[in-house]
Every structure is written in structure tokens, then in C-alpha cells.
Design a protein that fits this description.
4 copies of one chain form a homotetramer.
Chain A lengths: L1 H24 L6 H13 L5 H12 L4 H13 L3 H11 L2 H11 L3 H14 L8 H14 L6 E4 L6 H10 L7 H7 L5 E7 L9 E8 L24 E9 L10 H15 L5 E4 L6 H6 L15 H14 L4 H4 L8 H18 L7 H8 L3 E6 L6 H7 L3 E5 L5 H9 L7 H6 L1
Parallel strand pairs in A: 4-5
Antiparallel strand pairs in A: 1-2, 2-3, 3-4, 6-7
Helix pairs in contact in A: 1-2, 1-3, 1-6, 2-6, 4-5, 6-7, 6-8, 13-15
């Protein structure tokens, strides 16, 4: 049985690769649509075991010819003119890219490539050589899913049930507990916006959820309470981005989130001119793990972003915190220990400010700070859920999006500098 | 005055280039949208004289570094693995492409790039170095305007007046003489389909006009007669593509026409299953000029596609035809000289079959034959307009699209073989 | 407290009636829109206790003047010409109708009148004098909600969640158990169509649910089983109308259901030409109650529709059935007693055929038979739910819609004749 | 030939009337849709000569029964209760109305009735007995085309060409000279709004044209000059209704214009809050004819609306004006005679103020004044076109719509009082 399967898979893989070579060799474009259509159909029914064979071959057989590239590079180095450059680019781009572009021309091509990348990413660990296939896919998908081609749409209770069902399924941060919960998140003081691509018109790519509130919130529970009453419009002063979820793993690495947040902020500012504040209420998913790793806060390996007295105060706090077991730190009871909470908050500030620009830094912090947001406030007990206690010891962060200062913060972050409020500064 | 202008232009060009460098150097993506927006705005108001400065710099300053490329090519030649390839592609792609991709992300970016290419193409003659800029633009635009991203829409009398106005303006083959003429071309036995891009939703990119007839037509006049009565649907047996016009010069070289023709043919076949025949009624715009050049039909320089007796018969016909002046050949009176017309038709067949695969071949023939159509019939007096007589001596051609044989014909054409009907064969 | 309330109500009612008189007395139309708007607003916030006052006055004060009517009727009787008729209609139409027409002109007017009638119907029992108000409302609403003005739309999983929520709420025959149940009823082998009015664009007025099956079904459970797999399209041979629900009590008496069924049948016939059979699977809601009433099947009070031997056989069946208590007849155990079931089915046939044209006849039977359907089959144990056993002793009926014979059946029904199949005939 | 025609017509008319009787006698509604559909089809192909036969019969055979009506009226006079009233309305409404309502239920019914009324109105002169048919049609059409059911849409250059073509065709006040002229009237400083009915979705019923200007205009020519440049939005202070045209003669007498003007004014006020003034620029189509009739301005037959000195001044002006022939008064040269123009303007003011509430008054004045507008200004030489000189001696009027005072003016007009500005007052 297994033998037959593997034989069938190999045969299916060979057919796909045969069509791929034929499509790529096609000199004109007239016929390519038919070939691409055939290839898309074959890929749609390819058995799971056949994919690794296809990926191996895509990685091995669709690369530039090293000798040709070398000759073209030498010619270009000798005479760096237009002709030499045209000759160089003609031979140095991996033929895989042209293959993918031709696939993308036919109906269903874009969806097929996105799904293929999903599979590729699933198996990337352990297949280092597939990385060049992934690089080409990411390069092209970034070009095709650029924000200029995306459509932002508000999702509300008038949206098709089929779309809402996908939202329930893909919410990754604060799970949606059925239709009644979703409905609450679409009442006037909650908003949901998603990006769509014309080629995948019914599939949200990424979406963000917003709460409209009188001021910056310090805890997540009231925002996602499904039995709460909606606030009157006159009270909206702050727009809180409390959840952002990718729906399409095949687009990992394609920048969508920061464009979505900014376009939504501009949209809300136009619709509700009285909004004064745009911020997040975010977890610190890397905090507890970092703490368990007993980071060096003083001494030669210490975090470089801290001044000496700050580092010493943090080291003392760390020592006190380490008297508690991991389990104790993650238990609800810990929230009542005020001194402990103050220490944790100090350490979280250290973690976010000094570690974020470095490997092992918090991914959520990196996302927002790179977007140009400012670290505004750390909230003790902001997320008392089991997951919140385990990952962040209950702490939540407000990142502030000051639309006028986003650029400056972003550029500073590029230099390794973190923007934070005076309030956060005093925590150090 | 001129001095001031040139100084202003130089300054504006410098600003554009400054923003371009800044946009390209931007490490993250968070800020790029704002910068790209600024650049798009600046480009929108750039004085005409400033563009050549910008193009010169785009051609000179945004190229790969020859030394870096050479090193990467050598490394890749030494060890052709994934890492070496990633390093190579990172340095060999012209940075211009990344610049254009970043521009394309912002609202209005696509339109700005298309308009920029229009200007570039206008000045390309005389600026050979700009060709590498054009190559990069064409490369990206082909990727972004691939048929998978385009939407085909039928244009009819219910379409917005603003769109119809553009159709009147852009019809390049058989000019539309005002709204009444257009209206006739949108009655049920005439159809018009266009391609649109989501980023340019109100601008047709290319459109094709179709007549639905009982059989293959031999003259254009009845098809574009604005006072004609529409035929009843039951009589539609043949779909005639009688005009195809590009609307956007900035997309020259991006394949649109062949995809449009095929998608329309499939659409019509579904809507009207009784259609039996898809063909064109096309001019031979290069024929008269080729004839004036007194082509060698026999001897060492003769066209290689002809057998000896064919070439001799053609040479005799050419000799007879050359007794008439160019003006005489292009006069309506010539249409009554049957012997002359027979000679012209024989020569046109020779021209289309033997010359099309070669430089100087007819562009319309090349377009359809490369698409996989077959040269079906030559019609004497098919176009008796002044332009028709001057360019094609009144001859018109039917190219037949046999949907089942398109692939075979196209592949044969790739090998230099022309598909023609038995009827055309006998003309040789 | 109560005194204040009743005083407030009386005052609010007086305001409404004052505006009504003013609106009606308005000679031109220029101002009526503003007045109607004011009246609509007032009616929107009228306290519940004020409505009876308003209805009393609407019934008493907006009637034709008897003396005027009499004079006009005498004049028309003397000289029955156009002038006399115009004079007659001018005074004999209740001014209420003009009042309602003027209300209907303003934004929200239609919805206000529909809601007002809902309230009126709620209180009609015990207020005989309100019937003339109801008659005028029904007369006008029938004119405004005529099927020519209604839009039929298919409701599916792409419909807005807000609409689907209303469907769940209003399904009156076979309750929808949440979103998953609804979703099953919208898969391709189930259909749902609703009528909408342009003035109430987001409110379904009535909807019908259809199952597409290989043949005529004899039990409801498989049709509404939410975990069932959808059937493949090739198997659809019969369209079963298994549920029809009104959403708007304020439109009671306005014919909607029969128009909807016929429009849906035509729509499905066009979409799925292979459909051979349109029928219902319906309850007999009046059967058990009729049986309890011990109807006279022979003797002087017997049902007139039966021949002597039929009546005698039925009387014997009735006698046997009456040995069982009502509770026993409605218990699931009764379904296993084949002889009893045969008796019940015979009696149901008698009930439907002989009683339907008379008072106390089954309302569902009357609806479908008046529509021109034929009584096709009685199914033992078709509905084994508690409600089904209690009301119909588990029996269900198929009414057949033979589109070619609907007119004939309807006209016969007008004469008191019931159309039934040979199979049903043998049951007598 | 004529004999055959008249025989055919009579036969077709008989068929229509037969179907009408059958449709009306139909007791249930189940079948009425099919019958109504047949009748609509027959009416669609009825020969022109058959219509008078149909109208004669509609007027004669579908009336209430005088004896029945008399009995019901006597019973209602004796006991004026609900039952008696229900019985009365059941017999006194002309059965024609129910016939038309049933026709209206079927697809195409509304359009058929509107077209039928168009024919009826064409022949009404000379057929006094048809007036009762017209009364019933107008009664029902007023109910079905009430403004609550109408949709107001802006028409602009993005509207379908098919719709714009109808606008060109129906503009009745200032003819549109082709597509370029229309295009100018749709640029941002010109607006066009129309009413549509859901049952006739592609046919405008009535439309109004607006110019957005810095102030109240005194001449029409600049407003309809097709080569004029559009004004910048910042300059819009006044919205001028310069043309209003009915498209559907079959709706004559159904109030549409005043509702449209008011809805447009509210719409513009919301869109452009800086608009300070809503007015018309209107002709006085009845003025020249009234003048030719040598109206009595003093003496026993004098217009009652004038004070003695006003009447005397007007009589003197009239005497001076009557020294000029009608042709001289309508010639462009007359515009240079300032004294004459002052006299004409005085007389126009008299005509509008004193004659409008009476028979022979100006229809345009009656329309706007009844709507609640105020007579604001008379402009000498406002319309120098041939038609303008002939009908109004070049005078044009501004009627002012002061949204806050519309109701008061309208109510005063109902009492016979004309609202006019102080400026107009001084003309008397």
C-alpha cells in the first residue's frame, strides 16, 4: 500500500514538474495560460507526500546557471553599461520567479501559490535548501500583496455570514466564543476592519479589532465582555487596537499589519474627528519565558540599553522575583502581592526597552515599536486569563500611535532607540 | 525666463531624486508609505523639463554595484548553493526595482508609474541609456498587470458616460464618429469588452470590438455602418473581432491583447453556444510599404519561405504590379482592375506567409499568428477607405481563431511556421 | 402614578389625533410631508396605553358623512353618469384612507402604518368597532404590498448576518436551532427565498424553505436534520416546500404566500430544468382537534362531501379510534399500531376532503388547495415530534403543485371541489 | 382595408375587455397573476384604434351599481355603524379600481397602467365620459407613486448613457443640445436629480437641474452656456433650480415636482452647508398671452388683488404698452427701450400677484407659490431667446425657497395670499 502510494506520489510530482518545465520554456505567452491552468489543476490534487519531491526539485532545478551568471557579472564589472546590466539581470534572476509569475497569470494562480507557500513553510524546518524557493515566493507575494492592491473593508453585522464565520475561526488573540460574542464585537463601539485582495475576494487576509472608549484602558476583560452594553458615540475619545490576526499563513512575512493599522487609524480619524488617542492594549508574550531564562542585568553580559543604577535596581527586583516559582508567578494569587507586581512591572519595562531591539525581544513590542508606536503604559493585572498569567504574568501594555510622531519613532527605532513615555521611564 | 525654468526644473528633479533615495534607504516598511506618498505627489507636479534629468539619474544611480555582483557571482560559481544564490539575488537585482515596488505600495502609485513610463517611452528614442529603466518598469508592470489581476467587463449602453467617452477617444482602428456611432456599436449584435485593473478602476486598459454575424465577413464597411439595423440573435453564427485598441501607452509591451481575445471568445462561447466561428477582419498595415520596397522574391536574397515556382509566380506578379505608381495602386479606381487585384492578393499572401516571421513582417499578422490564429482568407476591396487603400491596397484578412487548435498553431509559429487555410494556399 | 400615566397617554393621543386632523385638512400637498413627518415621529413614541384612545377615535371620527353619502347616492341613482359618480366616490371613501395615504408619503410612513396595524390586530378582539380601521389599513396595504412591488431574493450563507438572524427568529413551522442549523438549511440542496418591499429593504416579509430531493418525501425529520450531508445536484428531481413563515404580523391578510410559492417554483424550474415535481410536506394542524370534536360522519349533520359507503367506513373508523384516549393517540407508541394508523389516515383524508371547504377546515389545506395544489399523499408517522403527534397524530401531507393544472384546481376549489390523487381517493 | 382594421380592432378590444371581466370576477387571488399577465400582454399589442373602444367600455361597464349604492347609503344613514360602512365601501368603490389593482400585481402591470393613462389623456378632450376612468387611474397612481416609494438619485457623468439619453430627450424648459451640452450641465457646479420608482427602475419620472452660483442670477444664458468654465466649490452660495421636467405624461397630476425640489434642497443643504439661498430662475409663460387679452385693471371687472392707486398705475402702463404691436414687444429691439421694460415689469408683477390665484394665472407661478416659495425678483431681459421674448417679453422670475418659511407661505397661498419680497412690492 505504502509502496503504491509513494509510487503514485512520485508520478504526480513528476507530472507537476514536467508541466512546470514546459510552462517555463514556453517562448510566447499565447499558450501559457492553458499550460498554467493545467498546472494549477494538477497542483490542486497533488497528494501530500508528493509536495516534498516537488519542493526539492523546485529548489534544485530552477536556479540561475552559475557559469552564465559569472560571465555576465564579469562583463558588467568590465563595462558597467545598460547592455551589460540587461544581460546580467536576464541570467541572474532565478527562473523559478518567472515560473511563479506565469502560474499567477491563470485563474486561481494566486490562490495556488499562496497555498503552496503554506505547505512549504510547514516543512521548512529540516529542509534548509527550500529557503531559496521560499525567498522567491515571498519576493513575489510581497509585490502582489502590496497595500496599493489591497482593499480595506469594514466588517460588521451586515457582512455575509460566510465572512463572519472566517473571522470567528481566525481570531488568534482573544478567541471569539460563537456568534453572540462576535455580534457584540460588531456593535457601534467596536469595529473590525480587514484587508482583501482582488484575486481572493472572499478571504480576509488580516483583520484588526478596535474598541472605541472614553480613555486608554488598563485591562482587556471589559473590552471583550460579550454581555456589555455599547457606549454612546459621544463618549468615544480613544480607539484601542485590541487584537490583530493574520488569516493566511501562506503570506507570512508579507507586511500587512502595519499598513492596516495606519489605514484604519486614518479612516477612524476622518469618520470620528473627536478621537484624540490611538493605542493598543497588548500582551507581552515573551516576558515570562525571558524571566525564566534569568537574564543578566548587570555584569559584562548585561543588557546594553540600561544605565548602571537602572540595571542595579532591576537586578534587585529580579532576585526578589526569583524567590517565587514559575507556577506561583503565574497563579492568580500573585496578583494580590503588590510588591511582587511592582517588581514584575519594572522588569517588564526593562525587558521591553532593553531587549526588544535584540534577539529574544518581544515580538509584539517589536511589531508596534517598528511601526512607530511609543511604549506608553504597563498595566498590572491587565489580563487575568490563564494564558495572560502564564505568558505575561498578567501584565498588558499600551502602545501609543501618535500619528504625527510615527515617522520619528520609527526612524529612531531603526537606530535601536525605543520611544517610551515619561511614566514608563520612571519604572526604570 | 528659460534660465529660471531650467533652474526650477533641476531643483524639482533633485527633490524627486532625493525622496527616491530616501525611500529606497528606508530599512523598515513602516514609514515607506508616507515617503512614497510624498514622492508620488512631487512626481505629479514635476515640470516636463525635469523628467529627463530624473530619467538620466534613474538610469545611472540605481544600478547594482559591479564589484559586489562579481564577488557574489564568483562565490555562487564556486559553491552553487542556496546561501550563495540568496546573496547573489540580493545584490544583482537593480535597486530601481525595489524603488518602484515601494512607490507602488502607496495610493496612486500604480498610476504614477504607468504615467512615468509613458513619458519615458516618449523620450526613449535618443536616450539609449534609459532602456534599463524601461526594462525594470516593464518587468514590474507585466507582473502587476498580469491577466489574473485584470477584470474583464462588457461595455454597453448602460455603462457610465465617462467610460464611453474614453472608448470614443481611444478607438484607434476604425474611429468612432460620436455618440450615435458608438451607440450602434453597442447594440446586441455588436459587443465591446475591456480589461480593467483594480488600481485604475475607471480606466479601460485595452478593449476589443466584436460583430456577431451569420458568417465570416469580407468587408469592413457594413460592420461599422452606424445606420445599419441590428441582426436578430438567431442569426449569430460568427463572432468577428474587428477592432482592438490599447488605451494606455504606458503599458506598451505588457501582454494584454491575446489574453483579452481569448477570454472574450470563451465568454461568448458560453453565452451563445450556437457560435461556430471566431475570427478577425484585419488590415495589413505593412503591405503597401513592403511592396514599395521592391522585395526580392527570387534570387539569393529571396524570402526563404517560398518554394521555387511560388516565388517565380510572385515575382511575375510583382513585376506587373510595379508598372503602376504608388498613387495609382492606392486609388479607388484600382479596385476595378481585376487582374491587378489578383496580383496584389497573391503578393499579400506571400508577404504574410513568408515575411511575417521576419523583421519587417506585418505587426497585425504577427500578433494574431503568434496568438495561435490561422491565416484564413484575403478579401479584395475589404477596406475601401483612404487609409485602407493607402496601407493595404484595400485588402483585408480574416484570421481564424479555432479554439481547439490555437495551441498547435502557436507552437508551430514559434518554430517559424505559418498556419494558413487551403484557400490561402492556392493563392501562392 | 397610574393617574399621571393615563393623563399623559390621553395627552399624547390627543396630539396624535390633532396632527392627523391637520394633515387631513391640508388642502395642498406642499406641506403635508412635514406634517406627516411630525405625526410619524409622535406615533413612534406613543405610550402603549394611548393606542386604544387613538384607535377609538380613528374608528369614530374619520368616517364618511352619512347625509352627504345619501344625497350623492340618490343623485347617482337618479342620473348614473360620470359627474354623479365622481361626486359619490368623493364623499363615500372613508377619510381615514386619505389620512393613511398621506402618512405613507413621508419617510418611515409605510413602516409606521404596518406597526400600527400590528397593534390594532393585537387588540381587535373586544373592539369590534376597530374593524373598519383595520379594513381601511388592509385595503391600502394590499395595494402597496402587491407582488408587483415586492422583490424576491434568495437568502444564503452569503447573506448579511443581520438578515439571517431574522430568519432564525421568524421560522414558525420547524424551529431553527441556531446558526449551525441555519447553515445546513442554506447548503446547495436546501433553498430559502424571501419577499422584500423597497420601503422596508432589510426586513423579510415572508420566506419559504425548500428541500431539493430525488423524490417526494414522506417524513420531515431527514429534511431538517442538521448533520445530514448535502445531496449532489444531479439527484435533484423534486422541490419540496417544507416551511413557509410570515415575518410581519402587521401584514396579516395581505396575500403573499401564494405569490411567493409560485414565483419560487418558476425560478427553480428555470435554474434546474431537471426538476420534475413541486410539492409540500405539510402538517394537518386542525386534525386532532377536529377528531376530538367527534364530528358527525353519517346522519343528517354529516359532512356533505362524502358518499354513503365512504361515510359509513369513516364512521366505523371513527368509532374504533375513539376507544383510545387523546393522550394515547398523541403518544409515540400509537405509531406502532398499524390498524389504528390506517384508521387515522382514512379519517384525515375525510377531514381534508370533506371539511376543508367548510368552517373549521384545516387552514394549511385551505391555503394550498386554494392556491391550486392537489392533495397528493398522506404519510403515516411523517412528523414524530411532540407537536406533530399532538396536532396531527404524526400524519403529514404532500400537496402537489402541478404548474400546468394550478388554474383548473383553483377554479374547481372556488366551486367547493377538492383536487386529490387516485391514491388519496382509495383511502376513502 | 379600413373595414378589416376596424374589425380587427374591435375584436382585440373585445378580448381585452373579456380578460378584464374575467380578472375582476376571479374570487381568489391564486389565479389572478396569470390572468393579469395575459391581459398585460394583450394590452401591449392592442392596435391604436382599439383603445377608444376599451376606454368607452371601461367608463361604462365598471361602475358601482346605483341601486346597491343607494340601499347601502340608506342603511348607513339609518345606522351609521361599522357594518353599514363596510357594506357601503364594498359597493361604492368603482370596480375599475380593483381591476387596476389586480393588473398592477403582475410583472409589467405598473408600466402598462401608466402607458394606458398616457393614451387616455391624449384622447380625453372630446370624451368627457372617460374622466371617471382617469379619476380612478389618478387616484391609484398617486397612491403608488407617493414620494415614500420614490428613490431620488443624482444623475451625473458616471450615470449610464441610456439614462442620460432620456434626460436629453425629456428636458422641456431649456433644451439640451447634445452630449457636450449635457456634460457641461453635469460638471460640479451644475447638478441634476431625478425621481425613480422601483417598478420602473430605468425610467426617470421627473428631474430638476440646479446651478451652484455665488448669488441669485438675473439671466438664464450664462447658466446654460455650454462652453463656460465651472466655478470653484468655495464660491457656491446659492442653489438655483433652473429647470424642472416631467418625463412621464401618464403621471400628469401626480405630485412629484414639489417633493423633488424639497428633497433636493435638503440634500444640497447637507452636502454643502455653506449654501445660503435656494431659488429658481423661471419663465412667465402666461404673461404675453394675458397681456394680449387686454385685462381689465380698473373698473368693475378689475383684478381684486390690487389697491386703487396700484391699479391705476398699472392701467397707465398697460395703455402705454398697448401702443406697441405684439411683434414689436417680442422683438429683441424692445429690450433697449428702458421705459417700456419698466412698464412690462410692473405689469408682470401685477399679473403674478393678482392673477395667479385665479383662472388664467401663470402655471409656473402657481406651482412655486403653492409649494411655499416667495416671489423674489423680476429680471428684465433675463431670457433673450425667441421663445423667452415671445412668451415672457424676456422677463424671468426668481422664486425664493426659504426652507424655514415654506409652510407659512404655502398656508397663506391656500387663503389666496401671495408672498412677495419688498423689492417686488415697490414695482406695484
Amino acid at each position: 500500500m505504502a509502496i503504491v502510494d509513494s509510487w503514485t506520489s512520485a508520478r504526480a510530482a513528476r507530472q507537476v514538474l514536467g508541466l512546470a518545465h514546459k510552462l517555463l520554456s514556453e517562448r510566447g505567452q499565447a499558450n501559457s495560460l492553458g499550460l498554467a491552468g493545467d498546472l494549477i489543476e494538477k497542483m490542486g490534487t497533488l497528494p501530500a507526500q508528493a509536495w516534498p519531491i516537488v519542493f526539492d526539485k523546485l529548489a534544485a532545478d530552477f536556479n540561475p546557471d552559475p557559469a552564465q551568471v559569472l560571465r555576465a557579472a564579469q562583463a558588467y564589472a568590465a563595462t558597467p553599461d545598460g547592455d551589460a546590466l540587461l544581460a546580467l539581470t536576464a541570467v541572474s534572476e532565478p527562473p523559478r520567479q518567472e515560473l511563479f509569475r506565469r502560474l499567477n497569470r491563470a485563474p486561481g494562480g494566486t490562490a495556488t501559490l499562496v497555498r503552496m507557500r503554506r505547505r512549504l513553510l510547514d516543512g521548512l524546518k529540516g529542509h534548509d535548501d527550500w529557503r531559496i524557493v521560499d525567498a522567491d515566493l515571498l519576493h513575489l507575494l510581497s509585490s502582489w500583496f502590496n497595500p496599493g492592491f489591497l482593499e480595506m473593508r469594514q466588517v460588521d453585522w451586515n457582512s455575509p455570514a460566510r465572512l463572519l464565520e472566517q473571522i470567528i475561526h481566525h481570531e488568534a488573540v482573544h478567541a471569539i466564543d460563537g456568534w453572540d460574542d462576535l455580534r457584540r464585537r460588531l456593535l457601534p463601539d467596536r469595529r473590525l476592519f480587514a484587508f482583501f485582495h482582488p484575486q481572493l475576494p472572499n478571504e480576509p487576509l488580516i483583520f484588526v479589532e478596535i474598541a472605541l472608549l472614553p480613555d486608554m484602558p488598563d485591562a482587556i476583560a471589559p473590552l471583550i465582555e460579550k454581555r456589555s452594553d455599547p457606549m454612546p458615540p459621544a463618549s468615544y475619545k480613544a480607539a484601542i487596537f485590541y487584537s490583530i490576526s493574520n488569516c493566511e499563513p501562506g503570506l507570512r512575512g508579507v507586511s500587512l499589519g502595519n499598513f492596516l493599522i495606519k489605514r484604519v487609524a486614518e479612516h477612524l480619524q476622518r469618520e470620528l474627528p473627536r478621537l484624540k488617542l490611538f493605542c493598543t492594549l497588548s500582551p507581552i508574550p515573551g516576558f515570562a519565558a525571558w524571566l525564566q531564562g534569568a537574564p543578566a542585568l548587570t555584569g559584562p553580559d548585561a543588557l546594553p540599553g540600561l544605565k548602571r543604577p537602572q540595571a542595579e535596581r532591576a537586578a534587585q527586583a529580579l532576585e526578589r522575583v526569583r524567590h517565587h516559582s514559575a507556577a506561583a508567578l503565574a497563579s492568580p494569587a500573585a496578583l494580590s502581592d503588590e510588591a511582587l507586581q511592582a517588581d514584575l512591572r519594572r522588569l517588564a519595562a526593562v525587558y521591553l526597552i532593553a531587549q526588544t531591539p535584540r534577539p529574544g525581544g518581544d515580538p509584539v513590542a517589536r511589531f508596534h515599536l517598528d511601526n512607530g508606536a511609543r511604549l506608553e503604559r504597563l498595566n498590572i493585572g491587565g489580563d487575568r486569563s490563564a494564558k495572560g498569567l502564564r505568558q505575561s504574568h498578567g501584565l498588558m501594555v499600551n502602545y501609543l500611535y501618535d500619528l504625527d510622531r510615527i515617522e520619528g519613532h520609527h526612524e529612531a527605532f531603526m537606530q535601536g532607540e525605543i520611544a517610551f513615555s515619561r511614566g514608563v521611564g520612571t519604572l526604570l
